[in-house]
Amino acid sequence: MHYQTESWGFYMATRSSYSDPLEHIERMASESAVVIFSISTCCMCHAIKRLFCGMGVNPTVYELDEDPRGGKDLERALMSLMGTSNAVPVVFIGGKLVGTVDRVMASHINGSLVPLLKQAGALWL
Protein backbone atom coordinates (compact mmCIF):
# COMPACT_ATOMS: atom_id res chain seq x y z
CA MET A 1 0.00 0.00 0.00
CA HIS A 2 1.23 3.49 -0.74
CA TYR A 3 -0.35 6.89 -0.80
CA GLN A 4 0.63 10.34 -1.97
CA THR A 5 0.84 13.12 0.57
CA GLU A 6 1.40 16.78 -0.04
CA SER A 7 4.53 17.24 2.02
CA TRP A 8 6.68 14.11 1.91
CA GLY A 9 6.24 12.25 -1.34
CA PHE A 10 5.30 8.58 -1.35
CA TYR A 11 4.89 6.65 1.87
CA MET A 12 5.11 2.92 1.50
CA ALA A 13 4.11 0.19 3.90
CA THR A 14 6.80 -2.45 3.95
CA ARG A 15 6.08 -6.05 3.12
CA SER A 16 7.96 -8.77 4.94
CA SER A 17 7.70 -11.33 2.13
CA TYR A 18 11.49 -11.65 1.91
CA SER A 19 13.32 -14.05 4.17
CA ASP A 20 16.41 -11.83 4.19
CA PRO A 21 15.74 -8.26 5.42
CA LEU A 22 18.90 -6.93 3.71
CA GLU A 23 17.68 -8.32 0.39
CA HIS A 24 14.33 -6.66 1.04
CA ILE A 25 16.05 -3.32 1.77
CA GLU A 26 18.08 -3.59 -1.42
CA ARG A 27 14.97 -4.24 -3.47
CA MET A 28 13.02 -1.41 -1.83
CA ALA A 29 15.94 1.00 -2.33
CA SER A 30 16.14 0.23 -6.04
CA GLU A 31 12.46 0.91 -6.74
CA SER A 32 12.66 4.74 -6.58
CA ALA A 33 15.19 7.46 -7.31
CA VAL A 34 15.33 8.53 -3.65
CA VAL A 35 14.37 6.24 -0.79
CA ILE A 36 14.38 7.24 2.87
CA PHE A 37 14.01 4.72 5.67
CA SER A 38 12.52 6.65 8.56
CA ILE A 39 10.73 6.54 11.88
CA SER A 40 7.79 8.92 12.07
CA THR A 41 8.77 10.46 15.44
CA CYS A 42 12.48 10.97 14.64
CA CYS A 43 13.51 14.63 14.37
CA MET A 44 16.54 13.82 12.16
CA CYS A 45 14.26 11.85 9.81
CA HIS A 46 11.99 14.89 9.64
CA ALA A 47 14.96 17.13 8.81
CA ILE A 48 16.09 14.83 5.97
CA LYS A 49 12.58 14.64 4.51
CA ARG A 50 12.30 18.45 4.65
CA LEU A 51 15.69 18.82 2.97
CA PHE A 52 14.70 16.67 0.00
CA CYS A 53 11.22 18.14 -0.33
CA GLY A 54 12.66 21.65 -0.10
CA MET A 55 14.94 20.79 -3.02
CA GLY A 56 11.94 19.66 -5.10
CA VAL A 57 12.69 15.96 -4.72
CA ASN A 58 9.80 13.56 -4.21
CA PRO A 59 11.29 10.76 -2.06
CA THR A 60 9.75 7.42 -1.28
CA VAL A 61 9.61 7.20 2.50
CA TYR A 62 9.35 3.96 4.45
CA GLU A 63 8.15 4.67 7.98
CA LEU A 64 9.46 1.60 9.79
CA ASP A 65 7.51 2.21 12.99
CA GLU A 66 4.23 2.18 11.08
CA ASP A 67 4.75 -1.37 9.78
CA PRO A 68 4.04 -3.92 12.50
CA ARG A 69 4.82 -6.85 10.17
CA GLY A 70 8.37 -6.10 9.10
CA GLY A 71 9.50 -2.70 10.34
CA LYS A 72 11.54 -3.95 13.30
CA ASP A 73 13.35 -6.54 11.16
CA LEU A 74 14.23 -3.87 8.60
CA GLU A 75 15.36 -1.50 11.34
CA ARG A 76 17.71 -4.17 12.75
CA ALA A 77 19.02 -4.91 9.25
CA LEU A 78 19.70 -1.20 8.66
CA MET A 79 21.58 -0.99 11.97
CA SER A 80 23.67 -3.94 10.87
CA LEU A 81 24.26 -2.43 7.43
CA MET A 82 25.31 0.93 8.87
CA GLY A 83 27.26 -0.54 11.78
CA THR A 84 25.56 1.78 14.23
CA SER A 85 22.89 1.69 16.92
CA ASN A 86 20.91 4.43 15.13
CA ALA A 87 19.21 2.91 12.12
CA VAL A 88 17.44 5.95 10.72
CA PRO A 89 17.30 8.00 8.70
CA VAL A 90 19.01 6.01 5.98
CA VAL A 91 19.00 7.41 2.45
CA PHE A 92 19.48 5.62 -0.86
CA ILE A 93 19.82 7.58 -4.09
CA GLY A 94 19.66 5.75 -7.39
CA GLY A 95 19.60 2.46 -5.50
CA LYS A 96 22.95 3.23 -3.85
CA LEU A 97 23.46 3.75 -0.14
CA VAL A 98 24.28 7.37 0.68
CA GLY A 99 24.08 6.95 4.42
CA THR A 100 22.59 8.56 7.47
CA VAL A 101 21.90 12.21 8.22
CA ASP A 102 25.56 13.18 8.66
CA ARG A 103 26.59 11.85 5.24
CA VAL A 104 23.57 13.37 3.50
CA MET A 105 24.12 16.79 5.09
CA ALA A 106 27.86 16.69 4.32
CA SER A 107 27.04 15.84 0.69
CA HIS A 108 24.59 18.73 0.57
CA ILE A 109 27.09 21.18 2.05
CA ASN A 110 30.01 20.12 -0.18
CA GLY A 111 27.84 20.26 -3.32
CA SER A 112 27.86 16.57 -4.22
CA LEU A 113 24.20 15.87 -3.35
CA VAL A 114 22.61 17.70 -6.30
CA PRO A 115 24.69 15.86 -8.94
CA LEU A 116 23.73 12.53 -7.29
CA LEU A 117 20.06 13.50 -7.44
CA LYS A 118 20.34 14.57 -11.07
CA GLN A 119 22.11 11.35 -12.02
CA ALA A 120 19.35 9.32 -10.33
CA GLY A 121 16.64 11.30 -12.15
CA ALA A 122 15.25 12.87 -8.99
CA LEU A 123 16.14 16.45 -10.04
CA TRP A 124 15.99 17.97 -13.48
CA LEU A 125 17.30 21.51 -12.88
Report the mean per-residue pLDDT as an integer: 86
Q: Give the uncertain stretches in residue-range form.
A: 1-9
Widest beta sheet: strand line-up = 1-2-4-3-5-6
Strand fraction equals: 15-25%
Shape, principal axes of CA atoms? globular
How would you describe the overall organization of this protein?
It is a single chain. This protein is an alpha/beta fold and 125 residues long. 41% of the residues lie in helices and 20% in strands. A six-stranded mixed beta sheet has the order 1-2-4-3-5-6, with helices on both faces. Helix 2 links the parallel strand 3 and strand 4. The relative contact order is 0.19. The N terminus is likely disordered.
Keywords:
125 residues; 5 helices; alpha/beta; six-stranded mixed sheet; disordered N terminus; globular
How are the SSEs placed, and which strands pair?
Layout: E1 2-5, E2 9-12, H1 21-29, E3 34-38, H2 43-54, E4 60-63, H3 71-82, E5 90-93, E6 96-99, H4 101-110, H5 113-120
Parallel strand pairs: 2-4, 3-4
Antiparallel strand pairs: 1-2, 3-5, 5-6
Helix pairs in contact: 1-3
Task: Write a concise synopsis of the structure shown.
By secondary structure, the protein is α/β, with parallel strands linked by helices.
